[in-house]
Amino acid sequence: FISEAVDQTRGWFYTLLAISTLLFDKAPFKNCIVLGHVCDKNGLKMSKHKGNVVDPFAVLDNQGADAVRWYFYTASAPYLPSRFYPEAVSEAQRKFLGTLWNTYCFYVLYAEIDGFDPTKYKLRDCKLSVMDRWILSALNTLVKTVDDGLRDYKITESARAIGDFTDSLSNWYVRRCRERYWGKEMTEDKKAAYMTLYTVLETLCRVAAPFTPFMTESIYQNIVRSVDDKAPASVHLCAFPKCDKKYIDTKLEQNMAVVLEAATLGRSARNASSIKNRQPLGRLLLAGVGARLLDDEMKAVIADELNVHTVEIIDGAAEYIAYEVKPQLRTLGPKYGKLLGKIRDWLAAHGEEIVKGTANGKTYEFVLDGQTVSLTADDLLTKVVSREGFAAESGERVTCVLDTSLSPELIREGYMREIVSRIQTMRKDAGFEVTDHITVAFAGERELTDAVKFYENDIRAAVLCDALTYADGGEETEINGKIARIGIRKV
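Predicted structure:
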């Protein structure tokens, strides 16, 4: 089946090469990519007599041709052996095709609600946010990467770049910008959000069309041809995109990479301290070479992502963290043998001093029992430990320190955010449309009721509530250890 077809194709290439060389003294082709063996799930070459062949038509019927193509593009370099089995194709389908389709569906959902027509606006006239500028820069960087990659027959690298970009588009850009599409009015910010996402999807369709021809065609027909009958009849009749250098901002992309690292570290710090993401915190402290690159716009993105009120850049995190240092037995054992026990005790007592002494490739030395011990960073197992009242995590370019102390005001705001989340879940469970307006009846313990009254306008705006009454008329729910009863009804 698949493996045998590859073998036969390889055989024909060798035959053509031999004939052309004999007759014309040159190869019959300028470039040739030959697939490696297609193996089964366990890495064994597929063979009928082993009974481990996979019927390609069964996979094509279930996962689709685009998913099969994408799996082969991204699993490994084409000339290397690859393992082929339906579950692997499904995973590739979920990570890229599913993510792209969900992003497209998000755009279509809100574009239809607002009657948005991209032919009536120009991207160059829009007031772009920092997130818009970043995704457009990343898009044009992707266009250049894929264009150069395909020119050099770097298929796997190009496909993986498309996959990485699509993941960032969905799980960072769209997630961060979701609320921009919720308002009733077509504000300037909303126009910029729509035009940016439309431009990215339309361009991404043309970039990915050679890899996944069927899904990109479907998306193109629905978001481009449905509103512009003068556009080419098919995505495959469009020109491949050209990199627009005026949108590329390398510094912005580098800074956003620091923001993404800080967001990941901040979430990890929250998890380590068992503080929910919806509980606001007072401040986040950032240290490291990456932190010094961040301007106010970048800090605002981090603050909103990690649900903190302020982000502060500090010179160092030493006063907020400690280091737990242990010996790397693999390297120190052969050199110091019986001295390891005392080395372990020394490391435990001088953690911060040793971490600084081995930073940037330096060697740290001390004397034990008359013997000089020399250590580098490779000889250590180092763990960052937060001091009381703080949660810290360190990465390659930045160290994040969360101030975990909770004031009464922060606790009250945390109640509000949990209540909004609970009402949104109730809307979804009730099958309400995103545009449906509701009324809310709320009754709960004093702390919860006080939070609702204090943030009533914010809650009503967030859940599209036309009227909020303080009455016991709904289902019981627990919010941060407090009991409330919430009822909702569509207007």
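Summary: The two ends are 59 Å apart (CA to CA).
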